[in-house]
Amino acid sequence: MKTPGIYLTGIGVHLPPSVDARDAVARGEYDAADHEWYGWTGAAVAGDTPAPDMAVSAAREAFSRAGQPVSDLDLHVHAGFFEQGPEGWSAQHYVLRHLTDRDVPAFSVWQACNGLVGSFDLAASYLLASPQRTAALLTGADNVGTPNYNRWDFGIQNGVLGDAASSVILSKREGFARLLSVTAASTSEVEEQYRGEEPIFPPSLTVGRRMNMKERFASRRGVEETVAEVVRRQGELRTHIALQALAEADIDVSEVTRVTHVFTGQESYLKVILDPIGIDVERGLLEFGRPLGHLTVNDQVVGLNHLVATGQVGPGDHVLLIAHGGGVSLSCAVVRIEYRPAWAR
Fold first, then answer.
1. Which domains does the chain have, with CATH numbers?
2. pTM value?
3. Which controlled-vocabulary keywords does the entry list (predicted)?
């Protein structure tokens, strides 16, 4: 979808300190062989800071940088992968309450690790649907450091998770970057691989059953065969929607300056994502992401913030955001940098 007249006016992140992966190995939390193989050097750890509080922090930074009044806000969308707080409680309204007293709609989006980039499509469509609407706030946050979960052993490939929050303001007011296009799709037939043999009812969280993705994958045809099937199907569709997003942005793949993507410690994993699109890994963020871990919904926006803040992209440069979540949900967005904002080095 082309997104005429939609800009990024603000962007913000909350990124906790990184814990060295070697320390996790020494504590017995991270398998030494996995550390050697997967290439992660650390993970961002938020301690006992709740995910919604991190989202508030990121959103405040986004509004501060935007210089745009909160009164412009017409929509809030919040994304996360893990539980945000008490069951039956709406984290999105907690975030909104700490930012404004305006009675704008706030929605929670669950698209696994595609939640935040996937929200670009929803928010842009919402703004374009009415001339009276001006701005949408997107937030994403996760703290995976719960007592019954080991961030160093997610159970499937690329499995070290970090904590973070990030935020973007999409607006019809001119901003430091322009959103040129967004695309989204689903490989719904892959949901059974992520479900495994677990019963749908009662939900595992309600009976204290721990999430074990490796066990679920193994319940089908074995972990390696199942992962290969998911990667193949996901890769085909991801390549298609990435090229579609570039075509709708009226640019060629050669005009993509940088790419933000799911963080990984392995160059080979990143090549699987980028090679079919025709983009080399040097345009990605391999080294930046290695000490942070996979930040669930936040990798792409944290990466974009890093590129702009450090001056690695500037006016006229194009950034491709590629996201996938749970093997099932995929989104891409193309952003063009309009000018270097005051907060960038």
1. 2-175 (3.40.47.10), 180-337 (3.40.47.10)
2. 0.95
3. Acyltransferase, Transferase
